[in-house]
Task: structure prediction
Amino acid sequence: MLIREAKLSDAAGIARVNVDTWNSTYHGILPPHQLALVTVPDRVRYAREVISSPDKGIVVAETENGRIVGFSAFGPERVGNLPFKGELYVIYVLKAFQRKGIGTRLVAAARNRLMEMGIHSLMVWALHDNPYQRFYQSLGGAIVYTRTLEIEGFKTLERAYGWWDTAAIFQEEMYRNHML
Ligand SMILES: CC(C)(COP(=O)(O)OP(=O)(O)OC[C@H]1O[C@@H](n2cnc3c(N)ncnc32)[C@H](O)[C@@H]1OP(=O)(O)O)[C@@H](O)C(=O)NCCC(=O)NCCS
Result:
Protein backbone atom coordinates (compact mmCIF):
# COMPACT_ATOMS: atom_id res chain seq x y z
CA MET A 1 0.00 0.00 0.00
CA LEU A 2 1.42 3.35 -1.08
CA ILE A 3 0.76 6.44 1.06
CA ARG A 4 1.36 9.59 -0.95
CA GLU A 5 0.26 13.17 -1.42
CA ALA A 6 -2.85 13.62 -3.57
CA LYS A 7 -2.84 15.16 -7.03
CA LEU A 8 -5.79 16.94 -8.65
CA SER A 9 -6.37 13.86 -10.81
CA ASP A 10 -7.07 11.85 -7.60
CA ALA A 11 -10.18 13.93 -6.78
CA ALA A 12 -12.71 11.45 -8.20
CA GLY A 13 -11.12 8.47 -6.40
CA ILE A 14 -11.03 10.41 -3.14
CA ALA A 15 -14.68 11.41 -3.54
CA ARG A 16 -15.75 7.80 -4.08
CA VAL A 17 -13.94 6.66 -0.92
CA ASN A 18 -15.52 9.56 0.96
CA VAL A 19 -19.09 8.79 -0.12
CA ASP A 20 -18.81 4.97 0.24
CA THR A 21 -17.25 5.17 3.70
CA TRP A 22 -19.60 7.94 4.86
CA ASN A 23 -22.55 5.68 3.98
CA SER A 24 -21.11 2.50 5.52
CA THR A 25 -20.13 4.36 8.72
CA TYR A 26 -23.24 6.45 9.36
CA HIS A 27 -26.01 4.18 8.02
CA GLY A 28 -28.34 3.71 11.00
CA ILE A 29 -26.70 6.59 12.88
CA LEU A 30 -27.70 9.54 10.71
CA PRO A 31 -31.13 9.88 9.06
CA PRO A 32 -31.27 8.99 5.32
CA HIS A 33 -31.74 12.60 4.17
CA GLN A 34 -28.58 13.48 6.07
CA LEU A 35 -26.65 10.63 4.44
CA ALA A 36 -27.81 11.80 1.02
CA LEU A 37 -26.24 15.24 1.52
CA VAL A 38 -22.78 13.83 0.85
CA THR A 39 -22.48 13.33 -2.90
CA VAL A 40 -19.65 12.47 -5.28
CA PRO A 41 -19.78 15.79 -7.23
CA ASP A 42 -19.72 17.77 -4.00
CA ARG A 43 -16.81 15.74 -2.64
CA VAL A 44 -14.88 16.06 -5.92
CA ARG A 45 -15.17 19.85 -5.57
CA TYR A 46 -14.04 19.62 -1.94
CA ALA A 47 -11.03 17.44 -2.77
CA ARG A 48 -9.96 19.75 -5.62
CA GLU A 49 -10.25 22.79 -3.38
CA VAL A 50 -8.15 21.25 -0.59
CA ILE A 51 -5.50 19.87 -2.97
CA SER A 52 -5.17 23.29 -4.67
CA SER A 53 -4.88 25.17 -1.40
CA PRO A 54 -1.31 26.14 -0.40
CA ASP A 55 -1.86 25.58 3.33
CA LYS A 56 -3.97 22.39 3.18
CA GLY A 57 -3.46 18.96 1.77
CA ILE A 58 -4.71 15.43 1.22
CA VAL A 59 -2.76 12.21 1.54
CA VAL A 60 -4.09 9.05 -0.08
CA ALA A 61 -3.62 5.31 0.35
CA GLU A 62 -3.29 3.63 -3.04
CA THR A 63 -3.21 -0.07 -3.82
CA GLU A 64 -0.60 -1.60 -6.12
CA ASN A 65 -3.07 -1.41 -9.01
CA GLY A 66 -3.69 2.29 -8.51
CA ARG A 67 -6.98 2.25 -6.61
CA ILE A 68 -7.45 4.87 -3.87
CA VAL A 69 -8.84 3.13 -0.77
CA GLY A 70 -8.32 5.77 1.90
CA PHE A 71 -7.44 9.42 2.38
CA SER A 72 -7.04 12.13 4.94
CA ALA A 73 -7.44 15.90 4.50
CA PHE A 74 -5.70 18.33 6.82
CA GLY A 75 -4.72 21.95 7.29
CA PRO A 76 -5.01 24.84 9.74
CA GLU A 77 -7.55 24.52 12.55
CA ARG A 78 -10.84 25.99 11.30
CA VAL A 79 -12.62 27.43 14.34
CA GLY A 80 -9.80 29.94 14.61
CA ASN A 81 -9.78 30.63 18.34
CA LEU A 82 -8.75 27.20 19.62
CA PRO A 83 -5.21 26.59 20.82
CA PHE A 84 -4.56 23.74 18.36
CA LYS A 85 -2.86 24.90 15.17
CA GLY A 86 -3.60 21.96 12.88
CA GLU A 87 -6.74 19.99 12.11
CA LEU A 88 -7.41 16.65 10.53
CA TYR A 89 -10.51 17.61 8.53
CA VAL A 90 -11.50 14.13 7.50
CA ILE A 91 -10.12 10.60 7.38
CA TYR A 92 -11.75 7.69 5.60
CA VAL A 93 -10.61 4.18 4.80
CA LEU A 94 -12.96 1.90 2.80
CA LYS A 95 -14.58 -0.69 5.03
CA ALA A 96 -12.84 -3.63 3.34
CA PHE A 97 -9.44 -2.05 4.05
CA GLN A 98 -9.98 -1.03 7.67
CA ARG A 99 -7.94 -2.39 10.61
CA LYS A 100 -4.84 -2.94 8.47
CA GLY A 101 -2.89 0.06 9.75
CA ILE A 102 -3.81 2.32 6.81
CA GLY A 103 -5.55 4.96 8.96
CA THR A 104 -2.50 5.13 11.22
CA ARG A 105 -0.22 5.63 8.22
CA LEU A 106 -2.51 8.36 6.84
CA VAL A 107 -2.45 10.24 10.17
CA ALA A 108 1.33 9.89 10.24
CA ALA A 109 1.67 11.28 6.72
CA ALA A 110 -0.71 14.18 7.48
CA ARG A 111 1.18 14.85 10.69
CA ASN A 112 4.48 14.87 8.81
CA ARG A 113 3.18 17.35 6.20
CA LEU A 114 1.79 19.63 8.90
CA MET A 115 5.11 19.55 10.74
CA GLU A 116 6.84 20.58 7.52
CA MET A 117 4.45 23.57 7.50
CA GLY A 118 5.48 24.40 11.07
CA ILE A 119 2.29 23.03 12.68
CA HIS A 120 2.95 20.88 15.74
CA SER A 121 -0.46 20.50 17.43
CA LEU A 122 -3.48 18.75 15.99
CA MET A 123 -7.16 18.13 16.58
CA VAL A 124 -10.00 16.30 14.87
CA TRP A 125 -13.78 16.53 15.29
CA ALA A 126 -15.72 13.27 15.52
CA LEU A 127 -19.47 12.75 15.72
CA HIS A 128 -20.38 11.74 19.25
CA ASP A 129 -22.01 8.55 17.96
CA ASN A 130 -19.15 7.62 15.65
CA PRO A 131 -18.17 4.04 16.53
CA TYR A 132 -14.58 4.55 15.37
CA GLN A 133 -13.39 6.93 18.07
CA ARG A 134 -11.17 4.26 19.54
CA PHE A 135 -8.94 4.93 16.56
CA TYR A 136 -8.09 8.40 17.90
CA GLN A 137 -7.74 7.02 21.41
CA SER A 138 -5.34 4.38 20.09
CA LEU A 139 -3.16 7.24 18.81
CA GLY A 140 -3.18 8.89 22.23
CA GLY A 141 -5.78 11.55 21.41
CA ALA A 142 -7.62 13.04 24.39
CA ILE A 143 -11.09 14.60 24.27
CA VAL A 144 -10.49 18.35 24.37
CA TYR A 145 -13.87 19.88 23.34
CA THR A 146 -17.47 19.00 22.67
CA ARG A 147 -19.98 21.02 20.67
CA THR A 148 -23.48 20.70 19.27
CA LEU A 149 -23.68 20.34 15.53
CA GLU A 150 -26.86 21.21 13.67
CA ILE A 151 -27.22 20.46 9.98
CA GLU A 152 -30.57 21.01 8.32
CA GLY A 153 -32.53 20.55 11.53
CA PHE A 154 -30.63 17.46 12.74
CA LYS A 155 -28.81 18.01 16.01
CA THR A 156 -25.95 15.89 17.27
CA LEU A 157 -22.91 16.22 19.48
CA GLU A 158 -19.34 16.34 18.25
CA ARG A 159 -16.21 15.64 20.22
CA ALA A 160 -12.75 16.94 19.42
CA TYR A 161 -9.70 14.80 20.06
CA GLY A 162 -6.45 16.68 20.43
CA TRP A 163 -2.70 16.19 20.47
CA TRP A 164 -0.67 19.06 21.92
CA ASP A 165 2.61 17.79 20.49
CA THR A 166 2.34 15.84 17.26
CA ALA A 167 5.99 14.82 17.49
CA ALA A 168 4.92 12.57 20.37
CA ILE A 169 1.98 10.87 18.62
CA PHE A 170 3.86 7.87 17.39
CA GLN A 171 6.23 5.85 19.42
CA GLU A 172 9.54 4.90 17.88
CA GLU A 173 8.53 1.29 17.27
CA MET A 174 5.23 2.25 15.60
CA TYR A 175 7.17 4.70 13.50
CA ARG A 176 9.41 1.93 12.18
CA ASN A 177 6.51 -0.41 11.48
CA HIS A 178 3.92 1.87 9.92
CA MET A 179 5.30 5.20 8.80
CA LEU A 180 6.33 6.49 5.44
C1 LIG B 1 -11.28 5.48 11.60
C2 LIG B 1 -10.47 4.90 10.43
C3 LIG B 1 -9.95 6.06 9.57
C4 LIG B 1 -9.29 4.10 10.99
O1 LIG B 1 -8.54 3.58 9.91
P1 LIG B 1 -8.00 2.08 9.97
O2 LIG B 1 -7.09 1.88 8.82
O3 LIG B 1 -9.14 1.16 10.10
O4 LIG B 1 -7.18 2.15 11.36
P2 LIG B 1 -5.91 1.30 11.83
O5 LIG B 1 -5.93 -0.05 11.21
O6 LIG B 1 -4.70 2.15 11.60
O7 LIG B 1 -6.22 1.17 13.39
C5 LIG B 1 -5.30 1.53 14.39
C6 LIG B 1 -5.89 1.20 15.73
O8 LIG B 1 -7.06 2.02 15.99
C7 LIG B 1 -8.01 1.26 16.77
N1 LIG B 1 -9.23 1.07 15.97
C8 LIG B 1 -9.41 1.37 14.65
N2 LIG B 1 -10.68 1.09 14.26
C9 LIG B 1 -11.30 0.61 15.36
C10 LIG B 1 -12.61 0.13 15.59
N3 LIG B 1 -13.54 0.09 14.63
N4 LIG B 1 -12.94 -0.30 16.84
C11 LIG B 1 -12.01 -0.28 17.83
N5 LIG B 1 -10.73 0.15 17.66
C12 LIG B 1 -10.38 0.60 16.45
C13 LIG B 1 -7.36 -0.07 17.06
O9 LIG B 1 -6.66 0.08 18.26
C14 LIG B 1 -6.41 -0.21 15.88
O10 LIG B 1 -5.31 -1.08 16.15
P3 LIG B 1 -5.52 -2.69 15.99
O11 LIG B 1 -6.23 -2.93 14.69
O12 LIG B 1 -4.10 -3.20 16.02
O13 LIG B 1 -6.36 -3.10 17.18
C15 LIG B 1 -11.33 3.95 9.53
O14 LIG B 1 -11.74 2.85 10.30
C16 LIG B 1 -12.54 4.62 8.93
O15 LIG B 1 -12.44 5.16 7.85
N6 LIG B 1 -13.69 4.56 9.63
C17 LIG B 1 -14.92 5.06 9.10
C18 LIG B 1 -14.90 6.53 8.87
C19 LIG B 1 -14.66 7.31 10.13
O16 LIG B 1 -15.27 7.07 11.15
N7 LIG B 1 -13.74 8.27 10.02
C20 LIG B 1 -13.43 9.15 11.12
C21 LIG B 1 -14.44 10.23 11.11
S1 LIG B 1 -14.23 11.29 12.51
About this structure: The two ends are 11 Å apart (CA to CA). The mean pLDDT is 91. Residues 11-26 form the longest helix (16 residues).
